[in-house]
Design a protein that fits this description.
DNA-binding; homodimer; two-stranded antiparallel sheet; SH3 type barrels; about 40% helix; about 220 residues; binds manganese (II) ion; 6-stranded antiparallel sheet
Amino acid sequence: MQSYTEENYLKIIYHLAEKTTNVQTNAIAEQMQTKPASVTDMIKKLADKGLVDYIKYQGVTLTETGKNAAIDIVRKHRLWEVFLVDKLNFKWDEVHDVAEELEHIKSTELIERLDEFLGFPKADPHGDPIPDKNGRFAKTQFIKLIELKVGDTGTITGVSQHSSAFLKHLEKLGLTLGIPIKISDITDFDGSVEIQLADKQVNISREVAKHILISSNGKN
Amino acid sequence: MQSYTEENYLKIIYHLAEKTTNVQTNAIAEQMQTKPASVTDMIKKLADKGLVDYIKYQGVTLTETGKNAAIDIVRKHRLWEVFLVDKLNFKWDEVHDVAEELEHIKSTELIERLDEFLGFPKADPHGDPIPDKNGRFAKTQFIKLIELKVGDTGTITGVSQHSSAFLKHLEKLGLTLGIPIKISDITDFDGSVEIQLADKQVNISREVAKHILISSNGKN
DNA sequence: AAAAATTTTTAGATTTACCTAAAAATTAAA
DNA sequence: TTTAATTTTTAGGTAAATCTAAAAATTTTT
Ligand SMILES: [Mn+2]
Ligand SMILES: [Mn+2]
Ligand SMILES: [Mn+2]
Ligand SMILES: [Mn+2]
């Protein structure tokens, strides 16, 4: 059994490992909002427990055990987010912090029943996949909206930025999950993207377009 | 803001204060499953924070602030228990431990929405009253089943013992919340109580009868 | 391949919540 | 009202998770 803190380290290492194989001390420190020296201490502890492989100065990778533990926490986090949005009517920009706490509640029974209560959802309110109780989930192939060309169509199925400010912005524009879109223009001047929605057109900056994930209906 | 541990101390002091005015160090230690020396340490800390009044060797009492904090934790505990039973189909003997963890999740918004989602319940699965968001709740006047005389009738509305063993026992006998009962006999030999239910008679020991709470329909 | 910059680790402290053992105060018994 | 038993506190320490400052290793730049 891991401590609250150890669980947070595992989860953060897991997420960082989605981008780089060997996760660096400084990167962990930044995510954990702590100092590199503290990270080194914790890494040693996790290595002693067999949760990470660690070579001094070379960063860490999760062991199979460590990865499973991390995925379990991700599962809990995302299920709780679904609960908060679907059952308690939270907005998608309001759920992350509470889920950060709820994910540490230790009860397998609780999570299985919650999963059932929610109807075994496949994705959380931000479009991120929810691992099943065996830790399995489809590695979804999203395209970043910014990679689409004029005329391409698709459906918004995720975001790669979870800050409240960003999510509220999308909400205001009507760019929420499940919304079908078509790229109507890409501005020469600043590269901003004009998007055709069912009832209106909206213009978003490249920065915003980078963080919207699309399941493409095929290019044209 | 209190730590997880401080919250547990406050809650335990609150419950102990329902029986005695000045709560003793040893009593707290027993409930907290820790040593008296540790309790003294924590009491000093809580006193410094203005959550308890403390005179050396004289025990503690909660301040107004401390009491409010304690009631808030009790509220969360009981609401989560209702959630677990009503929504996730846990049995009344399975919810306490998980609620012990959930009660520490820090989000006023979460609890208010949960309360609403549950339909603003007035009592938890054990019949204990749930304080409203202002900390107010009716001080329910229960009679212990053991105090009833032959011929008295009433309804089971609470239990004063929350152990899984006890609750499972009651469940098996059909003695659950809301069940109307009538005392049909009190055995001379061992003082055990014979109870008439809608469809059957059951016999319970004095020890069990002590921990069943009845809202009386009046004596006869 | 040095020098410079960056990253990571070690060393030594701090804080929180514990602990044991022993001293002090209070309460109960003789 | 002494003595005995109980309760509570103090003193001194431990383990987990931090921190700062300084040393060591690695990487990047000249
Ligand atoms: Mn989240
Ligand atoms: Mn999410
Ligand atoms: Mn309970
Ligand atoms: Mn209860």
